[in-house]
Structures are given as structure tokens and as C-alpha cells.
Amino acid sequence: MTTARRVASVAVPFGIATAGYLGIFLARYDRLPDRLATHFGGGGEADGFMDRAVALWGGTGILLGLALLFTLLALAPDRGDGAGRRLTLAIGAGTAATIGYPLIWTVLANTDAAAPADVRLPLWHVPLLFAAGVAVGALAWWLVGAGQGRAPEPAAPALSLAEGESAAWSRAISSRWALLAAALVGVSGVVAGVFGPWSLGLPALLLGLGCAAFASLRVTVDRRGLVVVSTLLPRPRLGVSLGRIADARSVQVSALGDFGGWGYRMRPGRRGLVLRSGEALAVRTKAGREYVVTVDDSATAAALLNGLIERRNGERG
Fold first, then answer.
1. What is the rounded distance in angstroms from the CA atom of residue 279 to the CA atom of residue 91?
2. Quick check: 21 pLDDT over 80?
3. What's the DSSP call for residue 45?
4. Strands (DSSP E) found in the chain
5. Is 88's pLDDT higher than 80?
6. What is the pTM of this model?
7. pLDDT value of residue 43
8. Residue 257: CA atoms inside 13 Å, Cβ hemisphere, count?
9. Contact by Cβ (8 Å): 21, 100
């Protein structure tokens, strides 16, 4: 999978969406009212309005900003198996369609309108925009193609434990970038809620709390198994009991290449708490699911888990 092909998978959809929106808007600029209907209720009636120039450059800025974000993700070095990046680029391409579609139709609906309040945008556009996003995302998924898989790392050697001996391992990991993002998003939510409607501020505040929850984690291995908790908030809390674990390994992961990003990540048969690329503890359950947590000294944690499993199996044998 060449870099040019990865970049094209997101740059082309965003380029088409941006060119379409900007071109149609400028071509019909004099036929649009000074204030455009930009938000519509459940019956298709206009209930939100925006100045014409703000709508033009605001919509263009959103498309260009997202295009830059996903292009940078496409250009980032890929050290994983590529499955996470493939999903990220498919989501990016689909996002171009799901955002570009309503922006363009909003311009078309406002053209030659006598008054912004008279503009209607029927609800049948909603399933169409989602269908467009899925179709474009699926096309990008196909064009990017599957990456080269990596051979799984062997299980870590088991730490020898005597009968009745207690042992525990614990490490904390945090991400300064995630903490900064949580603070910025949370503060913007509070400011938006104070100076504007809480319908705008509340989502940003909740997103900031979500970022904070995964920004600092404590990973513990003991006779209970694996426990991961947030050090800043009561949740999230991930626990995998010792009886469910088949083995543990120390692995190298790429946040983008293996999981498509950072935070709590989900892939078929795999879950990850990923704060960075690099060393991680990977725990495989007897049901075949794998849990991955990025943390330093993961080899020691894996060896202790395997030792606890070995002793437990010996006691039962």
C-alpha cells in the first residue's frame, strides 16, 4: 500500500466535497439570502440560521480542517499491521461524504428563497447522507487494501512462584497530549455553555471528560488477574480475571497502524487501551479475545501473569 494511495483515499473525497460546496456556493452566492437556514427540525422546517459569509467560510473551513487531519493520519509512519489505519482512512473518506452532502444540499435548498424561514430540507436526506458515507467509506476500505500481518509474539516466560507466595506488579501511564486535549475541549465546552446554549457546550464538556478518563491509567497485575483503572475518574475500569486468561505477552504496538488511533479502541477479537505507540501488555483470554494496554515494563507484568496462571493450573491439576 503506497503512501500516495493512502493519501488519495481521503484527499480525493474531501477534495470533491470541498470543491463541490465552494463551487456551488460561489456560483449561487447572489441568489442566496443574507442569512441562510442551516439547521432543520424533525419536520424539515428551518430552526437555525447563519450569515451567508459565515456559512461559506465556516463550511469550507470544516472540510479543509478534517481533510488536513485525515491526510496527516495517512502520512504517519505505519509500524503495525495496517488494519487500524485502514479503518481510520475509511472513516475519513466516509466523513467527507456525510459532511459534504448536507452542506451542499443546504446551499441548494436556500437558493432563491424569499425568506430563510421558508426553507425546507426533508428528512429523506438523512438516510441518503449516511448511505453515501458508508458507500464512500467502503470504497476507501477496498482501495487501501489489507496490510501485511505480523507474526504474533510468543508468550512471555512464566515467573516462578512458590505455593502461597504473593506477588503484584503495578505501573501508571499518562499522556500529556490527552490531558491537554481534555482540558482544552472541556474548557471550550464550559465557555460555550456559559456564553451560549448548553446544547453546544454539553457535548464538548462530555468529550473532555471522556478524554480525561483515558489520559492517565494505572495497570495492576496480581492474584486477581489484570486490572486497569483511570487515575483521574472512577471510570473506566477494565478487569480480566485470572481464571479467564490463557497467556500474556509483551508486544510492540502502533497506535495508528494497529488500532487506528488512541484511547479505548475496539477491533474484532481485540480491545486496546492505547495512550501511545510502543511497549504494551497483551493478555489473551481462553475465549480468544485479546486485551492490549500500553505500559512500560510489560515483560515483567506478562511474566508474573503467566506465573500466576501456571501456579493456578498446577494447584488444580
1. 27
2. yes
3. B
4. 35-40, 46-51, 169-174, 216-222, 225-230, 237-241, 245-253, 263-267, 270-274, 278-285, 290-294
5. no
6. 0.59
7. 79
8. 18
9. yes
